[in-house]
Amino acid sequence: MSSALIKSDDQYRSWLQEVSKRFRQSQIKAAVHVNAEMLRFYWTLGRDMESMKGTSPWGSHFYERVSRDLQEELPDIKSFSPRNLLYMHQFYRLFSEIAPQAGAQSAGNGITPQIDAQWNEDQVFRIPWGHLKLLIDKCRDNPQKALFYVRKTIENNWSRAVLLNQLDTDLYERQGKAVTNFTLTLPAAQSDLAQAITKDPYSFDFLTIRDRYDEKELKDALLDNAEKFLLELGTGFAFIGREVRVEIGETEGFIDLLFYHVRLHCYVVVEVKATKFEPGHMGQLGTYVVAVNHQMKTAQDQPTLGLLVCKEMDKVQAQYALESSSQPLGVSSYELTRLVPENFKGSLPTIEEIEAELSGGANEDQDS
Question: Quick one: 144 and 214 in the same domain?
Fold first, then answer.
């Protein structure tokens, strides 16, 4: 070891930490490489089974026969169960439409350089097999939907549980679906990016609030579940504050929720309404957007976006209202499923009642 590395204990500890970091990075790279090679093998095996199955004499027992024979050839490998073989076949079939040359082979891993480049672009081989099996189950016959979730998984480092939740809430169908005027108020490139961060409807199924809730209760509940709320908003939203004060002439206004989007490099004003959309909401939202542009936005920031999230909306009415505004605004609805009936709380025993009941039971035991 060079003496330059051990001039002091601090330098030595720093070197050890740097070596540890390099080692962990190498482990991650190795794991990613191994996972990709395994998935390439699964893909080619699925392709082979696609060719074999139509001419196989085994009928409905095809996967059982292949499983048994492969396990005899490779007794130490546990990946060849009939069910896993079926998944490999479905893996190939799901994505074969977007890899039309996949039938061609090369001497190396069975995939031509052209297909290899396409798959690298689509990133299919970068996520775990367990994630892919979820996509196979949930995105049958829809490779573009599956690719959407593949990219989102890599972009956000989703666990399998988070991916399942996003699948169950139909993120693919909701992403980028807010009614907006972004194409009229923003440059084309920024308009597309801004549209992509919206959803319609937003799913607030993680909330449990009373049936006749008001806006304050809704906003309280959202911030009480801040982590899940930010996950639903999507990657890039950084929370700035609630009821953020802005000066508007000689009056003052309070923005429901203010965010900064770190990828779009802009503030996002979010107004939450527990009522149906009304065109008048656009005036207030637009005013807040202008106020943020004047009072908070810097030369490095992109124009502020405004988003109204309301209980329900008429999309045609919302579009007409948006076209009358010169500010980049959007309107979405939200969904709630876990509403507590008004009389539910009253039917539950209070803490005092529970303690009294427990005390009474204890006294009876002592008496006996």
Answer: no
